[in-house]
């Protein structure tokens, strides 16, 4: 599967994002009760933030997943671990579908990681999924993430995990 990326346009993309983030499948995104305006506002804040970026993953020009990348020294993980130069934080969301495609979500996380590592400044990807999100823990492990420890964030108990460029390359070529 081949994906391309484009920045989220908060106003034009809010309706699609709202459908994705409020679906029960996206419970760990923690926007279940968000109104359209809440989603617009959240993504306008991200668009204005130099340390946080939201991108759509496109297949044949159509949005098929969401990824966010952030600087963990300035967002999400400030004070919860010692950020290193070259660290980048990541979230991704594949929307609910009535026609699941075998291997799609793994292809998405692989594409997200490859996209992040296209930046030569990125040395390590950091994630902090909810400890209860066992499906994403398995996906993370499949692309080379190694859990370090559980941490308490204001909104959740999270599993802090890291993946270096070398761990990713080894995992996806194995």
Automatic annotation (TrEMBL):
Stretches assigned to the Acyltransferase MbtK/IucB-like conserved domain: 6-53
Pfam families assigned to the protein according to its UniProt record, in alphabetical order: Acetyltransf_8 (PF13523)
Indicate yes or no for the key word Transferase.
Answer: yes
The record ties this protein, via InterPro entries, to: Acyl_CoA_acyltransferase, Acyltransferase_MbtK/IucB-like
Its pathway is:
Siderophore biosynthesis; mycobactin biosynthesis
Superkingdom in the source lineage: Bacteria
UniProt keyword list? Acyltransferase, Transferase
Keyword Glycoprotein listed: no
Could you tell me one molecular function GO term of this UniProt entry?
acyltransferase activity
Q: What is the role of the protein in this entry?
A: Acyltransferase required for the direct transfer of medium- to long-chain fatty acyl moieties from a carrier protein (MbtL) on to the epsilon-amino group of lysine residue in the mycobactin core.
- The name of this protein is Lysine N-acyltransferase MbtK
UniProt source species: Streptomyces eurythermus
Q: What is the lineage of its organism?
A: Bacteria, Bacillati, Actinomycetota, Actinomycetes, Kitasatosporales
């Amino acid at each position: 599967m081949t994906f391309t990326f484009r920045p989220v346009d908060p106003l034009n993309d809010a309706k699609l994002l709202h459908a994705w983030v409020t679906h029960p499948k996206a419970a760990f995104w923690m926007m279940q009760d968000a109104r359209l305006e809440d989603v617009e506002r959240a993504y306008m804040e991200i668009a204005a933030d130099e340390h946080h970026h939201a991108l759509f993953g496109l297949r044949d020009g159509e949005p098929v997943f969401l990824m966010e990348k952030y600087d963990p020294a300035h967002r999400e993980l400030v004070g919860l671990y010692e950020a290193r130069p070259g660290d980048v934080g990541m979230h991704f969301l594949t929307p609910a579908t009535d026609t699941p495609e075998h291997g799609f979500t793994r292809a998405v996380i692989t594409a997200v990681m490859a996209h992040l590592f296209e930046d030569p400044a990125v040395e390590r990807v950091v994630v902090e999924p909810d400890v209860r999100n066992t499906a994403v823990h398995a996906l993370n492990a499949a692309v080379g993430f190694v859990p370090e420890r559980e941490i308490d964030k204001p909104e959740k108990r999270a599993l802090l995990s890291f993946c270096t460029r070398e761990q990713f390359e080894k995992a996806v070529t194995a």
